[in-house]
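Fold sample X.
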Amino acid sequence: MADLTLRQALIADPLARSAEVAQAVATDPQLQQLQRQLLLDQARIKQALTLEVPDTLPLKLLRQQMLLSQQTQKKRFAGAIALAASVAFVAGLTLNWFNYGYPGMTLGQHALAHVYHEAPYMDQMLAPQSLDQVNAKLASFGAELSDWQQAIIYANFCDFRGTRSLHLVMQTEHGLATVFVVPASNKLKFEHHFSDETYRGRSLALKTADLVVVSENDADLQQLPAKLEQQLKFI
């Protein structure tokens, strides 16, 4: 299939459900980059068109807190520099709120709150991460990811109610999936399955950490947790 035809086919179906297109993407870095951009654009459009508010109480309160904080900051500051400062303040205030302001929050609800909190900035932070880079961060949890073939496009530490954890974003054949590695010492109530109107999640209790996978795609939750459980080794 010619390069132009492949690109047109990928634009028409960013998930590359055609075996021929999927094989071409797997061997062509430029097509992989195009697919990532198309999937990100698709996710942004879907998010922009989604008007429903999640029915879980913590997430409703989170969004209300963000809105109220933003309104308060806009009244206090004027000008571009002040507005940028207020956005940073709101982000920190909101993060602090869902870390400590809702004592009954479960592990899954906390993971969803993280995903929603970082969604407006995530597309600017995505960048390919080598397995060595990821394992350097996993080492602080006594863990190592071995023989991992899927692209990891974000890896950074985050806070799960005072517990230093690792936030990963992985490129799958179905789109993007978020993975949290949370030390087992966390104080959040464990739950195997959770969901809202947009995302679904699954948690695994491993040797010394809880593994939380969040995605819009059911297929990711059927495949990714098992692969991670097999290939994430604890030293």
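Fold sample Y, listed below.
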Amino acid sequence: MIAIDNLGFAYGDKRIYESFSLNLHGRLIGLIGQNGAGKTTLVNLMLGILRPESGRITIDNLDVTQQRNEVLELVGVMFEHSEFPRWISLARYLSFVAQVRGMDTLTAQSEADRLLKKFGLWDYRDRNFQKLSAGMKQKFGIAQAIIGFPKYVFLDEPTANLDVKARMEILEYLQHVVWEEDITVIILSHILHDLERICDHVVFIHEGKLVIEDEMTNLLSIDYNREYSMRLRSVDEVQRMAEGLGGLGIEVTGKKGIVLEFRCKNEGLKRIGDLVGDVPISPTRSLLEQIFVDKVGGLTH
């Protein structure tokens, strides 16, 4: 388990954390917050790259500050915009990382081959990192983070700047990897519907403070007051529908041309069925995005 107790940290005069505490539970954990919320700083503190002014961080009861070498044997990491040497092939680099993490040469080579096949990179094993597509680079970044059997893996924006197909492939890989490799993955991402799909635990941080820490199943079970929209045939129909929703006690939140936006819980959706007929209704945001907007006041992509 990763435990953060009474953490204090500042960059110069800018205080990032003050008396911050958190225990990270789960196998796929989403770490959520706006730019500047302190997510990357927190990961750097957990990795011992930064030193806290006060408080204590432990990973499996090892103090990150006092026992950093032992801690680093337990973790793997992929930073956003990671770069790798241009002069070495994918296979040789993975083998090198595995040896740094304690494997003998033959075992490291075997493990490198296994992960290259697992991530669909076998045909590119003799190429260097710069010759990969964006999706392949992300896959390779994850492969080098998990090689050598670390217990905890930190991934910073693993699906950023990818097309839909590549994003889906990465998410599917992550879902399999946590169980097949027996690891815990902590994901930093702004793509909240991706986290909603795969995470079993989520942590919301805002301005260095813990806003929410809960299991995804608990959040999904809440009858949340969500925003919805429907596309109608005319502006006049939007006005009539808005009046009808108002008569049912449904909160209308916006009218944008022929799109009507409103907010309600599940019971409200049931009550408007007869009024809207076969007009399709869609959530404006994913559940995590809705909760984030309500708690924090906006999204930064």
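Sample Y note: The longest strand covers residues 14-24.
Also: The mean pLDDT is 90.
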